[in-house]
Each structure stands twice: as structure tokens, then as C-alpha cells.
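Response to reviewer comment R2.3. The reviewers asked that we include at least one raw input/output pair. We reproduce the pair for Putative endopeptidase here without editing.
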Amino acid sequence: MRSGLTSTFDSETRVQDDLFGFVNNHWVRSTEIPDDRARYGTFDALREASEAAVRVIIERAAASDAEPGTGERKVGDLFTSFMNTESIEAAGADPIQPRLEQIRGLRSTSQLAGLMGELTRRGVWSAIAFYVTADAKDPDKYIAYLTQSGLGLPDESYYREDKYAEVREKYQGHLERMAELARVPDPADFARCVFALETRLATHHWDVVSTRDALKTYNKHSFAELKDLAPEFDWDAWVSGIGAPSGAFADVVVGEPSYLSGLSTALVDHDLDDWKAWLSWMVISDQAAYLHQDIVDESFAFNGRVLSGTPKLKERWKRGVAVVESCIGEVVGQLYVDEHFPPRAKERMEELVANLIEAYRRDFESLEWMSPATRERALGKLAQFTPKIGYPDKWRDYCALEIDADDLLGNLARSAEFELNRQLGRIGQPIDRTEWLMTPQTVNAYYHPMMNEIVFPAAILQPPFFDVDADDAVNYGGIGAVIGHEIGHGFDDQGSRFDGDGSLTDWWTPEDRERFEERAQKLIDQFDQESPADAPDIKVNGELTVGENIGDLGGLTIGYKAYSIAQEENPAPELDGFTGDQRFFLGWSQVWCGKARPDEAKRLIAIDPHAPANCRANVARNLREFHEAFDVQPGDGMYLAPEDQVRIF
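Raw output as returned:
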């Protein structure tokens, strides 16, 4: 039996001082981030492997003689349309000129709203984005959720905080250069108008902490109430442009109501010409990656180099794979699973998940701060969890989607329209509980609060997360803790507001909620003092990352408990010089091996609800089991006094 440890440990770092550093610093010092990436680590290495496997599948489809209309043919033709650089270069900026001309011809804000809707249908988001999912207050039916949109910079904070002043200046230059390449008249005035209007919209955007609040962002409105909320926006024209079925927007959930009110006033305060320039920019920026090389390069120069510090654009085949994945990913997923996911991996994962759920059950039954009333509901919710492992039981049907090997932008527009029709057609209908929101070849996992389900695609189920032939310790420290993390999202600061049926309802006693929030606040305060290893001059936003930090802490705590359950009959041997308990924590840390460019580290601090990798690994300092495994003592870097350790589950 192999240990499953894949790291070359750092002899210059004591594990008692820095778990992340002991496991990963040798790799960090000896590994260069690839030129086409802003960060690189365990997840990225697995994504590269998945990407390479998918490339083989896609290129094989492109070279095949598969029948027209088959999934394989569509995969190959979509990739071919992206790789046809000769045709793309010859077209230049011509493909977007009819749309830009249409925008220049707008004569009213009603026409503007209608065209925003039409562009949404073709995959171009503008001032309002929407998605369709289960109604959080009636989770057996689908409803549309409207959310804020319309900014070219990563977040509203980029428009107001002093630390982003240089980025704002470069962005305005970028706007002007892109306008020149897109053959827009008076590029300087165009850039001024776009930036002014985005700055105005940003004043109405909610910040990243508010937008993750499940209660604040659930605001159900009738269509009539939507009109009252934003009277200057022509909702009828927008819905007509989208092509929504009658009654689809009779009721909607508005994420940020004050944003829509602000959008309404901005329609009055800004000239129509400003709005036309801004909508033109929405089209240009959305289509830039699919036009001629000069526009592609300029788009990357800002979005890649300036925002994230990435030196080099990804090779075209990688971008082509991403296009196919985004449009018809489940077709590729079927082919991927057949070649890369053995049945016994699913069987071992089912065993792991069962032990994790059992560990949570035992934990809730003995949790000292949780009252009997809340405990009963928590156990009920846990019993209703649905795990999905590897790949969907039912694959998505793409028969109605037309793909043409000679029409890249048309393929993208038709793909967007196909997906929009699928989403709109579900509104008001019963929930499809077989659906997956990730493809099997995705290296990630998720918890869906309205479905009360955890989903683990096939591509993440490989070392160092999961090794079907390795000892339990590292598997439980890796994928086991990740499973625990995802289950834990059902009980974090937001997931805990949904009951076992997926309904947004308060099932906690006030006293339990208060005790939970005291512990969460302690974790917020702890992470507020931490910094990314790649940008040590800035601090983590503990309030933004609290949900993921609770997930990490709970996942590691329950992962360890599940590992203990697995060892009840067969205690772990010592392997590679480490006890089973030690290997568990080392396995956890090697999952978070990674590094980021400083600009990317700073960008992620502003917008990412996940803490930096080093902070995620070192959350282990909150566990007494970690202290015991490595004999951590006062004065050690990882030491936390018992009264300072946060233990929620």
C-alpha cells in the first residue's frame, strides 16, 4: 500500500511552524508559474491534465468522419471553427460591425433596453444579468434571478479605491485602443463615455460581501413591482428582446434591488450617446477573444497582464478547448468518462462519502453548542443530502443546436441562444434533480443549497486529491476533507439558512444562531490577520472568505473524524516515516500546493470568496488533533492556544 504523499518536503521549514511551507515550499521555490497562467498549483496541474485529455478527444472528433448532427461531429466542427485563423484574420473586425451599427442607430432608451435583451439572447451580458435556478423560498420550481452587471473591471471597488488608481488609468487607455481596433469613431471620446458610465453603475453595485448574503439577495418581485423599482428601464422591451415565453418574468428574484433603481436613474442622467458607447463596449469586449489577433492581443494585454500579471496568452488550442467546453461540455464529458474514469473509483468515493456523512452525524449528535431542536433539524438535513459522483446519470441533449465548422461567431451565438431557451423553458417547471452544473472533466466540486447536494466531477478524483490505490490517510486528508468541505457548506454562514428541502428558511433557534455566529466571527477575526504568501503586504478579507473558511475548517475537522471511523477496525501503519494522523494533515496541505503572481494574488483578495492557498492549508492550526499529531508547542508558528482555536463542527 502506497502512502499517497506526492510532495517533496522542505527541510528548511518545520511543520510545527508552517504546515503549508513544510509540504509545499520546495515546490514553490523550484517551480515557475507557466507564462500563460496567473497562478499555478495542484488544481491547475490537474486542469492541465484534463485539458490535454480533452484535447485528444476533441482533435480526434475534428479529424473523424462522424455523421453530421452527431455529438462528435459538433465537437469537432466547433473546435475547427475556432482554429480557422486564416478565415478569422481575413474577417478582421467586420463580424461585429453590423451590431455596432445597430447600436449607433438607437433612438431611445426603450430601444436600448430591447437591444440589451436581444444581446443577452446572443450571449452578451449588459446592464442586467440573469440566471434560472430553484426558487429559494419554493425550491421545487425554477425562477429567474436578476443580478447586477455592466462593469468592465473585476469589481465595484476597482472604480473607487485608491489602490486601483493605476489600473483605472490603464483601463481607459485600453478602452481607447480597443475602440480603434474595432473601428469605432472618435475612440478617445468613446473611452471617456464608457468609463464615466461604468463608474456611475459601480456606485450602485453591491460589494462582494453583501452579494454573498442569501437573505439580503433574495427579494421576490412581480413584474409590476419590477417596473416600480426601475421605472425608467423599459422592462417590456427587454423581455421582448430576450424572447422569453409569456409569463416567464411574472415573478423574479432580484439580487440587488438598489442597483436596479440606480440603473433607472442613470438612464435619465446620462445621454443616450453615452449608453450607446457603453453598449458597444459590451459587444466589443465580449467578442474580442474570437476576432482578429490584434484585438485578441490587446484584450489580453489588459485582462491578462494588467489585472493578473500573466505574461503570455494561452496557446490557441487551449482556448479552443475552452470554447468547446463552454458550449457543449457534456458531449465531451461523455467521451471523457468512457476513457478516464474507472468504475472502482466511483465505488471507493461512495464509501468515502458515506463515512463523511456518518462523521457529521456523530459530530452533530455530540456538538455541545447546538441545542436539541436545532440538532434534530441538522440531522434531518444531513439525511437528505444527495451525493453525485463522477458524471451525470442523464446527459444533456444538444440535438437542436446547430454547429457550422465555418462560422465561429454564429456557433457561439447559437450556443448561447440554445442555452437561454433551455433555461427560460424551465421557469415555473419542476426541478430536474439529475442536472449537473459542472462537466465530468472539470477539476472542482460544489454544494448546491437549494438542491442540498454535493457534486464531485470525475476529473478531481485523482492524486493528490484521491488515489484509489493509496492508503486511507492521505485520501481522507485530501478528497475526504474536500467532501467534508462541500457538505459543510450546507451548514456554513449562508448554507445554514437553507433547510433539508433546500428552502431559505430559519430553522435554527436564535440562541444557536448566536452561538454559531460568535464562532464564525472568531474565524473572521483570525483570517483578517492573515496574508497571501504571494502578496504579504495585504490582508485577507475574513468577512468575504468566511463561508469557504468554515467549509475548510469543518471539512478538515470532519474529514479527520471520518478517517478515524475508517480506522476503527484497521489502524493505519506508519508509512514514509509518518504516522497515519500525520499523513492525514500532510495530505490536506498538499492539496493546496500553489503559487500566484502578485497582481493575481491582489485581484483575488478583492473578489474571491476563497482564502489564499497557504491560509487554507494552515487552517489546521485550529485543530487540537494537528497539535497532537506533530507535538506543536507554544512558540511554534502553527501553535494556537486552546481558547483561540476555532471549532465549529
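The domain at 95-284 is CATH 1.10.1380.10 (Neutral endopeptidase; domain 2). The chain has a mean pLDDT of 95. Further pairs are available on request from the corresponding author.
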